[in-house]
Specification:
heterodimer; A: mainly beta; 2 domains; 12-stranded antiparallel sheet; 4-stranded antiparallel sheet; 24 strands; 13% helix; elongated; B: 234 residues; 5-stranded mixed sheet; 3 helices
Amino acid sequence: MSFKRFETQDIVISSDSITGPAWSNGVTALTSFFTSSIQAAGSSGDYYLDVFQSDPIVAPDTSVTQFSIAYCDSLGSGSVNFNDAVPFRTPTLSNFGQYRTLVLEDENSEFIFGDNTNLLTASNFYAISVDRARYKEAIFPGSFNLTLSASNGFKKIHLTDNSNVLAVNTFLGSTRVMQVVSGSNGTPVGVNGYVEASGSYGLFLPDLGTILLNPAALSQSLHLNTSRSRDLSGENEDRLFQAIKDGANFSLSSQETISSDFVFVRLRNSEFNYSENPSFISGSTGELIYNNFINQPQVYITTVGMYNDSNELLAVAKLSRPLLKDFTKEALVRVKLDF
Amino acid sequence: MGYLNNQVVTVDAILTKKGRQLLARNDGSFRITQFAVADDEIDYTLYNPNHPSGSTFYGEAIENMPLLEAFPNDTQIMKYKLATLPRGTAKLPILDLGYSAITLQQGGTLAITPQTLNYLGNQSINETSGYSCTVADIRLLSTFTGIGINTPAAQTQNQQSSTAIGQNTSVNQTLGTDVSATIIGTQINLRGTTVNTLYGAGTTVGAQIRTTLTFVGIDSGARITIPLTITRTS
């Protein structure tokens, strides 16, 4: 026999949560930020601004989108009308509706930054949408650290999520949400890290890979003067990008759950001791190449094949070096298949 | 294809092309139920039973060799399976098809009845569990069936392979794709494709296309691969 059936206990399914650096090349903290003039000038530039870890003009092969910045406004301010016959229907309004549907799941709900007595009902916000390949399944709460700097460089704020002080998860619709606050590594500074009378700095949505920032709070503490001009490009994405670039620190970790099959291949001493390898026999009659192989065959395992009932090879595992097998040896090979 | 680090024993596991195909099919056919082990890459002529340093060193040339990473093509790996045979076996089972190569005309048919030699003390037998036959490129056959084995697994397998070559188009299946197909039986029936486009533009009568057929004795593990050629006739 050359096939052996697995026993029930030979296949174990396991799920592990894996966290790691979010940015390209395993970098935890981005310190340099670039945009693409081609993307910004294109049709997508009306809606969002892609941010890269290296200059896409200088290194087009290695430059990869890390995140995007969008400005969202319920009044449609900060961008030009799609059509002058229909005023204030603009990309920023489309952005606002998109995130309202995605996050609030109710077109009559409003974005509220902060809680209790310090909250702000916002009609506009910035959205930082992390590239899916970067955050994988979710952003790891507590790993978010973003430094924003005023253009003159004299004022800096350090933002994080408040996951460390939340006793229980909070949700907006079905979306897990945390407040963006002043602080670091998931812990706010002061009472709650909010801005007086402006609520929190935003909302942290780990399962959507999205961070919403509150323009009122940013204006108050950083003088990031968001433009709400009607039918005029406010270039607000550029304002936030410049603050991120000058802050020179955006750290994030990704989180994903990897389901694995652990397959235990058990080879008893009396099993798998002869080979169909053509060099194991001599001539065309099937005689063994060496006489001592008749009673003491020695074979070298290099490959484990996993099959279905129809003998179709579904997965294969190679050992890093040959494993000697004979009638005096048993072997146990553990194979991990990730999905 | 890179080498694996052989300073420590590790296992490099991947899904095969067939595994990915069945996973995508999402019909339950991707279910690992059995395993086999093989000694691909091992050349036993390197084993030296006359080594002057003694038996510990007989396998010296084999044991330290680095191995290549796994190939995803299921027809290129697990070529030489290890078999469980009684101790004292002097001759290993080998397959006899009656053909060392097969050439069919377009639409031509052939029935192959493999025999296993040297298995369990028999000079020649037809294995109880039958034989699996894998065609590396299914496009070359318009009929590919196995008969003689009526286990549920064999029947399911044979139905899926029939589906794969378009006999049953009611099932979602990508047709005309260069993938392998495996059937099980004691007799394997082939019919060459009648599709001319496989020969390429500008070819004429007499042009040939070629793939391989791999037979494996399910009980013995004996294996043989032969070329299959289909000759254009129209």
